[in-house]
Amino acid sequence: MKRFPLILLMLLAAVQSFAAGFDSNFKNSTLRLDYILAGNASRQDVYLQEICRTGEWAGRRYHLDSLLLEGNAQVYVRSLEGELLYAQSFSTLFQEWLTTEEASRLNKAFECPVVIPEPKQKVKVELRLNDHHRRKAASMEFVLDPEDILIRKIDGNGLPCKILMEGGDLDSHYDIVIVAEGYTPAEEAKFFADAERLNSFLFIHNPFKEHASRFNVRAVFAPSKDAGPSQPAKGDWKNTATASNYDTFYTERYLTTSSLRKVHDIIGTVPFEQIILLVNTERYGGGGIFNNITLGTADHPFAPVVFVHEFGHSFAGLGDEYDYGEDDIEDPTYPLDTEPWEPNITTMVDFASKWQDMLPAGIQIPTEPGALMKNYDLRRIWNTLNDKQKKEINSKLGVYEGAGYRTKKLYRPVQECRMRINECEEFCPVCCRTIVRMIDFCTTK
Ligand SMILES: [Zn+2]
Predict the structure, then answer these.
(1) What is the CA(260)–ligand 1 centre distance, in A?
(2) What is the pLDDT of residues 157-185, one digit of tens each?
(3) Which of 9, 165, 188, 235 could form a disulfide with 217 if both were Cys (CB 3.0 to 4.6 A apart)?
(4) How far is the CA of 323 from the centre of ligand 1 (A)?
(5) In this structure, what CATH number is given to the domain that contains residue 288?
């Protein structure tokens, strides 16, 4: 018999005690709650369509009753007595649509699958949607009985699945799944090569690079009849595995899918915490929605950098640090009387909750860009600068005006960041801190 040193026995005891929190309330399996979110700009409703039992639970096993970021929506699992057992936050395409003109004159419905660990007992499950003032806009609660015979059992679907990166067990690692979209049966090898390439590009970026051993990445190939996504503005409709399309909300480069159930059916029982839909196209575009889905494209020259930006939204809830400059519009996403929950932008309503603790003493707020920087459109000249110049421009952490689609009264931490321009190679210190916090939150005690 092996003799364990005392320190190892103590460690094992500690592991068992923090695992007990999860194990006392949940099984090592996943329930997929297929919701429908429906309504218009003035009224929203939540409906439950179906519950499925899928594979092993890949989500976090610690901090089960807390949220690192608020998101635009949350799912809460409570005991029948009301004790919070599990919470998860995310955002949805439906809530983005609510900010469009169309939502003021039309009712629409959006699919919204949400995964939770399977409870051992009956629980109350609440899905809550917030408005852009972070107030409750809609919610729906029901009692979930894990013994319900109508919970649909989903078995492995037999689709080819490859492990691209293996940090270790599901419990203490973050699990990403890359799903094929718009690849014909003959393009299976291309998909796995594209997935490998895109994934490698993500993990040359810090802080992902430094924490690469904390991730597992799998890729699932689902064949499509046609190659490439649909392009509605060109009248080009394709028959593909997950029905993705450009021109979402009539925005040319916005590539999304409304068929999230199809995406989840393809994933089947493959463990995941974050979904990347890899779309087989040379065209520019993409999308990223917090704890929901990232869409990246395979073959546009900017595809890898756009993908990393979009993954910043999906993984760490990072907001866009760009504005529209002279084309500034009244965007309702970030009302100026509300502090956004996104960690890297601020209206200064509650700046103490943001990066105030990281600022050097005596920094001017708002921070004036240096004269050189002020006089150039950095996006246009970024690639002509050398590393020293880039570092100098970004060296001063501050509170710079222009972020969240507005030129005025929304602020960002540095001059340039991966969340502001494609040309910038790095995430700013505030984005980096958030990414590290998210990795820790999801994988450690
Ligand atoms: Zn940033």
Answers:
(1) 28
(2) 999 999 999 999 988 999 999 999 999 99
(3) 165
(4) 13
(5) 3.40.390.10
